[in-house]
Predict the structure.
Amino acid sequence: MINQKETLKFFPQPVLKYKVDNFKDFNEKLSSYIYKLNSEDQSGILRSNKGGWHSKPFDLKDINSIQHKFLLETTKYVFDAIKAFGWKLDPKRVICTEMWSIINKKDDFNTIHTHPNSYLSAAYYVKAPKNCGKFIVENPHSISRHSYPALERPTEFNVKVARVEIE
């Protein structure tokens, strides 16, 4: 029998999930903006999307636009995440380099991918019908991708992929 046990979680990979204040108002206005972009450029661009439509990057410099207002609103969540990770917060150095939208329909999806040269990445769902899928996060520990023993049961220490409910 093991009498003493201490679990040291040295390299956890947290995923923070927020509900944006005033999300209903933002969703309505962002939806109009996104579908307008889609009608103006139906081909979009190809990145991680398999099927679906991926917009070009948003114009974030238009200070009266919904996308700029949304960027300003989400800044407080980015700052909170920086603090949660224990990083030094220098608001003048926190930069959103790009924001875009994706419209996926049944059987469309985005492949697992990374956002290189970014400390943080985020996904925001403007529309997400019930049972539309899950946000999938891959275990970032490279060794776990190719070398592991047989699993008896999934635990937070052995999963290769985690799924977050979209609400």
Remarks:
- The beta strands are 49-50, 53-54, 102-103, 109-110, 134-138, 161-165.
- The radius of gyration is 19 Å.
